Input
Amino acid sequence: MDHLGELKEFARLHARGQGISERQVAAVLPRITNDLPGHPASWARVWTAEADRLAAEGHPLDACRRYALARFPHHGDDVRRRAQDNCVRTFDDWRLRRGVERLVLDHPDGGTVACWAGGLDARRPRPLLLIMGGIVSVKEQWAPLLPRLTRLGFAAVATEMPGVGENTLRYHADSWRLLPFLMDRLAGRAKVTETSVLGLSFSGHLALRAAAADPRIRSIHTVGAPIAGFFTDPVWWPRVPGITVDTLCRLTGAADDNELRSLLADFALGPDVLGAIDIPVGYVVSSRDEIIPPTERQLLGLALPRIRFKEFDDVHGSPAHLGAMRKWLIASLVRARLTNRFAPRRAPLPGLSVVTGTGTGTDAADAVPRRPHPAPAD
Output
């Protein structure tokens, strides 16, 4: 499929995930004839015009969703960068009357990490829920869920992967340390020792890696997270969509496909890491996933003792089953919270230190892999 064709196909999926109807998308896509920066009929310009119109009519959240599409898959040109800024601005307009807080955190590596948050309270700290999308989705796509999650009793914080949206960090094999950094910074306003992670796609991979080293993470709930095969399987790699490859090049700084594959080899989670994860994990599988190989499910089913799977007959992210998927993830989150309430906190396996936001810590080099065991499915 050509680049513009991929853009339009992904737009249908991501628009649906944001609550934009197929009819509304179908009214816009025929007007887009290219992806040339600045061209009046280009991807970013047409979606930006739609967003501008809705913002002027007083619909900030609807405008925000169109700006998110305009900057898709990443803000790599001037029009997309403006769309990214406007995506944040219009969400800021929407959230002011809904108890959603904005945080901008300085990272020790020199970058910044922005978050939307609900339920943070130093007087009555609640269990922390970190929410993060994948390599193409900004925090504004998930932040509208914050009021609902706050009502469920969480201190909920939506943020972004390195290089995505307002996150100015570089994406690399140690990017999982972002999660301990966030827990360090939120300590005192949330119960970070009872942290759950709702990590979609590639951020689910970060969460699993972080959980092997940091016992504050008590459960993980993800959709189509890469584990090992995506990063290392030479047979699967040619099937990965061009937009995914291009976005990963931008986030990692890789110059081309060969350099990217060399960098990604270090991202794979081996038996040492997976063997240290002994917490509830909920994982949504898409049976027609065009990005994540089916071997990832098989690997997790053998390696993790407390994993539950939910499968949908869908493509990556199961966008055609958004309602059912979100319902299952929330149920998985609540189930894990209830079952973990009185469970003792595990310690990291020998060789895996508890890390902090300073970026210090060691990897496991000699951990013993788990024995295979069955994994339940819903």
